[in-house]
Design brief:
With 177 residues, the protein is an alpha/beta fold. The chain has one domain: 2,3-Dihydroxybiphenyl 1,2-Dioxygenase, domain 1, CATH 3.10.180. It is 21% helix and 42% strand.
């Protein structure tokens, strides 16, 4: 692998306004599934220098070892998922890499001219998003590869390899308590 690379891209993410309808379409049109849905996911962090708490619903599935993440933001707080008026930025959102050293890769990204726009965490992982003036509308994410995140990737990829195409939802988990 190229020494300049962050490694293989492990995730591509899309923003949608209707998560359930989108997951059904992804299953039907692309054959990707099954999906695990996490409702009321909370990320606490900073967006463009401002403290924020973001709530969203997320669907995850896999194509080989690549995670497909479908996000529907549900909070009206500053975030990289909505415009300043609170409208979801529907469409392709980011590509992501896993890292075993988030602090190191934040420095590497900034040394390459990327601008850090969002840092956040929850009990599963820590993430950092970067923007480039030369790639408007596209973000680059580096996520800490915690043991629970790696386990979830492995289980999801395995479920996808064994999916019979019948039920497009594997699990629907509400984290809102």
């Amino acid at each position: 692998m190229n020494a300049q690379s962050f490694g293989p891209i492990r995730q591509i993410a899309y923003l949608v306004e209707d998560l359930d309808a989108s997951l059904e379409r992804w299953s039907r049109f692309s054959g990707i599934g099954p999906w695990t849905i996490y409702r009321n996911v909370v990320l606490t962090g900073r967006y463009q220098g401002q403290d924020t708490v973001v709530r969203m619903d997320v669907g995850l599935s896999y194509q080989g070892d690549l995670q497909i993440e479908i996000i529907r933001p549900s909070s009206q707080t500053p975030s990289p998922y909505q415009d300043p008026k609170g409208n979801t930025l529907v469409g392709m959102h980011h590509v992501a890499w896993m890292t075993d050293d988030l602090a190191r890769d934040i420095v590497r990204a900034e040394e390459r001219g990327l601008t850090r726009v969002f840092e956040a965490q929850n009990p599963v992982t820590n993430v950092a998003y970067f923007a480039s003036a030369n790639e408007p509308g596209m973000l680059f994410e580096v996520m800490q590869a915690s043991p629970i995140l790696l386990e979830g990737f492995a289980q999801g990829a395995e479920a996808s390899r064994n999916w019979d195409g019948r039920e497009h939802i594997l699990q629907d988990i509400d984290l809102g308590g």
